[in-house]
Amino acid sequence: MIVAVLFGAKSFEHEISVVSAIALKKVLKSEIVYIFCDYNRDFYLIPTDKINSKKFSSGEYLKDKALYLKNGGFYYKKAFGEGKVSFDVMINLVHGSDGEDGKLSSMLDFFHIPYIGPRTEGSCISYNKLFTKFYAKEVGVHTLDYQMLRKDSKEPITIPFPFIVKPLCLGSSIGISIVKEASELSYALDTAFEYDNAVLIEPFITGVKEYNLAGCKGNEFIFSIIEEPQKEEFLDFDKKYLDFSRTKRVNEATLSTQMEEKMKEAFVKLYDPLFAGALIRCDFFVIDEVVYLNEINPIPGSMANYLFDDFDSVINTLVDHLPTQVSV
Question: What is the pTM (predicted TM-score) of this model?
Fold first, then answer.
């Protein structure tokens, strides 16, 4: 099987996507084809044996083969006619906007390209933290209290100190601040509004337990181990991503069987059927033995490969259970 990895794109999380793509080279046994989308949303075929982070930061990738989309796949110009990039399935590994907001999933569906990743509906719901709250409530999963605040709004904040300010549509802990007192609020809002025109405000609970669970569905659900991240107050960008090319340096949670089952039940409610065809990671809080959803990560860093004992078999299972497109 040949797996194409689509990464990069126009996103604040562009570099994270590059690191994720390189990390997959170490864990996928299948032959890999790399397709890079740059900030201009132009596509390039990157030689697998020459992929490294410097290639993209230096612009060296511009010397590689330029690609364009047609029905059924990615193509390139030849001296006479055109060639098609050969692969069996594509992994959407674009984090943030473009990859997780539904643009690329819509494009891949439009051109009838088989892919692993969230479909448009799941992308739109999980990318917007407010929509995620609505969805979790609808399927019966607890969430923390919240308040949405738009830029230049004069609405008073009703969440008591301390609280967390998050850009509404952004992942990877970018733009997030903990506000412990009124003097810190202005800076936190300014930081978040650099990335979005709306923010979500949630209570910050000291010492709350946080857990990460990844998984997908074949004939039945496949779950990763449950990770308890090591953190200080919250996982900022550096802690979460500059070291996520790791393989197995994971702090596996010690939980009762009952609590593990509660978390998996919440995951199933959130996953099925909205995220069919994707490997997602759900980040949960546990407060007074109750499981709360923190966020749904529809394209986790490095595909959360480090949470699985046999990541390659997980990918193979997904390939065999991709949603079927309706032909017209």
Answer: 0.92
User: Which residue is it, tokens 């509404």?
Assistant: 168
Element housing 284 (H / E): strand 280-287
What order do you get walking across the sheet with 209-217 strand by strand? 142-143, 290-297, 280-287, 209-217, 221-227
> Given a cut of 80, is residue 226 above it in pLDDT?
yes
DSSP conformation class of 306: G
Q: Are residues 311 and 27 in contact, defined by beta-carbon separation less than 8 angstroms?
A: yes
What one-character DSSP code corresponds to residue 250?
-
Parallel, antiparallel or unpaired: strands 115-116 and 147-150: unpaired
Q: CA–CA distance from 70 to each of 44, 107, 198, 305 (Å)?
A: 14, 10, 36, 31
| Tokens representing residue 322 in the block | 């991709």
What are the tens digits of pLDDT across the range 20-40? 999 999 999 999 999 999 999
Residues 226, 323: Cα–Cα separation, whole Å: 26
Distance CA 82, CA 105 (A): 25
What lies within 8 Å, CB to CB, of 9 at 6+ separation is 17, 37, 38, 39, 41, 94, 96, 97, 98, 99, 104
- Whether 29 contacts 37, CB under 8 Å: no
Tell me if residue 298 falls in helix, strand or coil: coil
The SS3 call for residue 46 is: strand
Share of the chain above pLDDT 70, in %: 92
- Taking only the tens place, the pLDDT of each residue in 107-141 is 999 999 999 999 999 999 999 999 999 999 999 99
DSSP lists the bridge partners of residue 297 as: 281
Nearest to 172 by CA among 226, 235, 92: 235
